[in-house]
Sequence to fold (576 residues):
Amino acid sequence: MALIECVDLTHVYLQGTPLEAVALRGVTLSIEAGTFVGLLGPTGSGKSTLIQHFNALLRPTSGSVRVAGIDLSQPRADVRTVRRKVGLVFQYPEHQLFEETVFDDVAYGPRNLGLATPEIQERVHDALRLVGVDPDVFGRRSPFSLSGGEMRRVAIAGVLAMQPEVLVLDEPAAGLDPQGKQEILGQIRTLHRERGLTVILITHSMDEAAQLVDRIVVMNSGQVAMDGPVRGIFRRADELAAIGLGVPAITDLMLRLRRRGVAVRPDVLSLEEARAAILEVVRWN
Amino acid sequence: MALIEVQNLHHTYHAGTPEAVVGLDGVSLTIERGEFVAIVGGNGSGKSTLAKHLNALLLPTDGEVRVDGLDTRDPAATWEIRQRVGMVFQNPDNQLVATVVEEDVAFGPENLGLPSSEIVQRVEESLRVVGMLAYRRHQPHLLSGGQKQRVAIAGILAMRPQCLVLDEATTMLDPLGQREVMETIQSLNREGVTVIHITHAMEEAAQCPRMIVLSGGRVAMDGPPADVFSRADDLHRLRLVLPPIPALAYQLRRDGLPVPEGILDADDLAAAIASLATARIGHGRVGNGAD
Fold:
């Protein structure tokens, strides 16, 4: 059984009022444990509404969501267990930092679980190291004295300290400088590869998706518009363009080359693959 | 006289306290009327601090900033400076004040005490320029991010500024919203508005004729994107990375392919590679582009 399963999931905000808005219309989707899924789509396509169902912040208007076998369409579902299994990192999570020190901020969740002090200490140190923040250097500092990128990483550590099985991140690199982006995305990739975390990443950047994920789900107008392995999705450039999304810059270059009659493979994901493909057609012997 | 003249500008936050932080450490630059300039730099490099000096939201700790000849330290000039230089900020939700789009755009001109016929005319014209006239009676909070930023830009245009400063105004938008804002400011620039675009997106900076790179509160590079992007190693040290197309062109040149220097966009690189590939026709590796 998949870790997350949505069947015909529909969500309507403010149902029965003049402001009623349908955010999800019949989404059917399953996510297996250990995968890395990119969730893309224009603003207002339902991405954020969908992920809030994954840890029961929102409940289905109709249809169902099961997380680790727990049916969240049931009003008495075990929400606590689901929230421990699924860690949600919202956009600009650093706005949610509030404690006096970095250590206390990351320890907030584990303390609420009622864990023993040594266990809390271990979890906090582990979580901070996972995001590349040295607990001995930063632990006693105020989170508000850190740079934007450091604050972002501390906020993510706060979620990791709950030791979730699934990490859902909404635009984790937004607003960071290019190297800050690379650092944070590299750490998320490491978490997935080395700890086997299931990761669901909302991003607007095709280049980020190309670098990181195995599978892409494209949302549009509250429905799943496309779903498949990354390379397959990027071959459908015209469909992506029709819903206001593009393909990664490198994929776009390959498509332009093909239109000019150069027979390169179109579904490259990285600069290295593009370079190899170009050298192959251009080099003398 | 240049529109903006910054001379040896220093800015220290909380100066004279133990929390003093240097934001700008001796910036000198000149921006002429009608220019389109990108300002890039890592987090903490001083981009926003510089931007806020351009319409007197911040004042120099040392050095000076002149806008159209007016010294930003002169309190009597503040309002004239702010009419000449309008700012658009990052978060589209924090900049709109009214409950109807056209009232939001009218907010500035109303404060200038203009006659209402003039206000109506300015509001219409500004909304038309950003492509939002059809939404004049809409509620701002129901618009997309890109649409909100265009309304924010219209609100500034209604003040008839000479210069628009965008402080990461595309950062929170989706790709479509980013494109809408870029196209809007490019068309404004063609009509003579000076544009200063602060961004983390190197792909956007590549579309501006001039790039200023800040680092540690100083100007580290200043020139056309083709020149700036030819210094890949320097950029890396400044916490920046090449956009994918210049990065690939750079790599292919290092592999010994005669790809011209200064290539910024995909079509130019495709053309250069295609002509190299064509030179190989007859060697059996160039096909018709089919699978």
About this structure: The CA atoms of residues 53 and 59 of chain A lie 6 Å apart.
